[in-house]
Amino acid sequence: MSTIKAPFNFVPLSEKVFFPDWADQISQDIPFSDGLSGTIELKITAESPIFVRNGYNREDKEAKNADYKSFSKTPDGKYFIPGTSIKGAIRNVLEIMSFGKMGKVADNRYSIRDLQLKEYMSYFQNTDIHCGWMTKNRDVVTITDNGIPRRISHSLIDEKLSTDFCQKFSDKDFLKKDSNRSSLCKYKLAHGKQLSYRFSDVPLNPKNVVDKRIKVKFDINGTEGTIVFTGQPSFRKAAVKNADGTIRQKASGKFYEFVFLEESGREFTLNCEEENGVYMDFCFVYKDSEEWKFWKRKLENGERIPVFFSLKDNTLVHFGLSYLYKLPYIKRIKDYLSDEHKKNQLDLSDCIFGTVDKKSSLKGRVQFSNAFCVKGKPCSEMMNPYMGSPQPTYYPIYLKQNGSDGIMQKDNKGILFSTMLKENAELRGWKRYPIQENWQESFNIPENQDNNTNPFYPMEKGAEFACKLRFFNLKEIELGALLNSVSLNEGYYHSIGFAKPFGYGKISISIENIHPSHNIDIQEYKQIFVAFMSEEVDNYQRSEQLKELKCMMRPQNLTVPLEYMELGEFVEHKKQHFKEGRNQTFGQYQQNYSVLIKKQVQQPITKVAISTAKVSVWQGQFKQAKLTEGKDLTNKTLIVNDKKAKLKIGDLIEVKVVKKGGNVEKLEYIRKK
């Protein structure tokens, strides 16, 4: 199995969050007695091609026209990096350096649909999933409770509707030719066919007490119902029989569709506008679903659409578009943060850059101007990558896992992955795209994704931009934090803009001037901040947070490439088989970035010293000499680069003593004594 990989990694969240004790004293009207104000002139240099998109509308994006592909520019054609983009890059670095809270997290409820995951399947195996019809009237949706959905086989559907589902969804036909497994494909195949009939239940199989599914058949004396199609997760394999007719291998794969009986009892109403409500959670989960786009149009046109849902204490808790629907996590993203990161207090980045949320508001004391291009131009060749990436629901990457060396566990007991279906799941931390040495100019586009690429014309490497950073009423520590976040050590870089997974967006920022300059010593103020944080955080400069951040801010030689995995790899890395007698797999997870850096082989240190030696051999190209003092007085090779030097055995000479690994390796002639 290949190693899990991604073009991004995470800076771990710190258990401690630093909250300045002067936060409640900040005022725009009453400055601190030691408050500092001024302007810093910055030069931003593109160390790789960079791209920042700006000034386009929805129509531009859909058409992928010139405005959408262009680097950010003014109406009169001047290229610039928006100040907000620069501010965002600097603020993220400062948040990590100052042990800030991870407060800028979207408060969404993500979901999971993973047929390999035991917890996911266990939920549906142990929960009565109901079916119903959803309708919408203005800002209210209504879902009827039509009870437990029934199942009807493809063979009965083919017989009644004159379709060929049994053939189309077998291992012999459909899925070998077409990757479309959605319900929409089935509705297209049954287009124009009647789907409402009368049905009656088929008696349960007394030989199979495990199968609780309620199957139905067509029956003119039965109950009215409607056939509902859902996706095809895998093809259907027919049973393999022995010569005597006994089953050697059971049939596998889906070969049933659903029937919603028209026996509606209670109804559930949901507010479409309720923030963090059940309907809004559903819309977030299915926002990118082609099936939801199809059904949503019907819903908006006043038609009813089929849904599946769960109840708790007779209340509808969540719903989806299939029986095994996308199961919402038990908590929202923010709820998986530790209490320190959820505190309603201002951290250092809030104090400096300001914040606006529901609980507090503070105007920032730092502003970045737009950075206008003073040198360089856009590349003539258009880049057109596909930017697919794992969703935050991909737990081997986005959540902390309990394993070793990237493998969940290496014994036969096995450890299950941590997912957000667990109360104690922990987020990995701050997501960052590590700096890369080079950038891609050609891209592999996945099959059927040609229309989902992101064309752009980047600004060429070497382009320069100028902007001003204005600060007002900052304390010494705050200014030191800002300078540390802006001005990095040699060889370290910021990243900005689009296509960072492919090596774009690498920039260096240099401080060109500071006004007033007489009382601002950059190194002094940077050290003030470091000294302060060292008092606040144990082992600050060697902390895991700074270590991972710094590693990602400079190019590294890695054991794993910074690239996205293929679709099959995403599935493969989640597989876990712990049973004896089969190939056991434990699952893999992404390791911290610093662990992925190739260890450098330490070469013996070569040292050079000046000393006196005596010539011992002088024969053509073969020359040797002995040191006159020291521990090693044996013959050593004498290197003589001076062609005019004429020496004889016994002459005293001044030499360079070249040592390797602590031993004298050779002597280099300087002059005759």
Main sheet: strands, sense, barrel: 7 strands, antiparallel
What is the number of strand segments?
30
Percent of residues in β-strands:
15-25%
Termini Cα gap:
66 Å
Looking at the structure, what is the overall shape? globular
Mean pLDDT: 89
The level of helicity is: 10-25%
Radius of gyration: 34 Å
Structural class: alpha+beta
> If helices are DSSP runs of H or I spanning 4 or more residues, what is the number of helices?
16
Question: Could you list the spans in which at least 5 consecutive residues all have pLDDT below 50?
Answer: none
Please describe what this structure looks like.
There is one protein chain. With 673 residues, the protein is of the alpha+beta class. The protein has 16 helices and 30 strands. The strands form eight sheets. Strands 2, 3, 20, 21, 23, 24 and 25 form a seven-stranded antiparallel β-sheet that branches. A five-stranded antiparallel β-sheet has the order 14-6-5-15-16, covered by helices on one side. A five-stranded antiparallel β-sheet has the order 7-13-10-8-9. A hairpin with a 2-residue loop joins strand 15 (305-312) and strand 16 (315-320). Helix 3 packs across helix 13 and helix 13 (476-486) crosses helix 14. It is globular and about 120 Å long. 30% of the residues are buried.
List the main descriptive attributes of the protein structure presented here.
673 residues; 7-stranded antiparallel beta sheet
